Amino acid sequence: MDQDRHSSDDEGSVPVSEVLPVSTQAKSGNTVVLALTNQKGGVGKTTTAVNLGACLAEAGSRVLLVDLDPQGNATTGCGIDRSAVKSGTYELLGGTGGAESILATDVQGLDVLPSTIDLAGAEVELVSAFARETKLRQGIASVRDEYDFVLIDSPPSLGLLTVNALAACDEVVVPIQCEYYALEGLGQLMRTLDLVRDGLNPSLKVGGVVLTMFDARTKLAEQVVAEVRKHFGDAVFRSIIPRSVRLSEAPGFGKPIIRYDPGSRASTAYRELAAETRARWPMARAPEQPTTEGEST
Question: Fewest CB atoms within 10 A around its CB: which of 46, 55, 210, 285?
Answer without folding.
Answer: 285
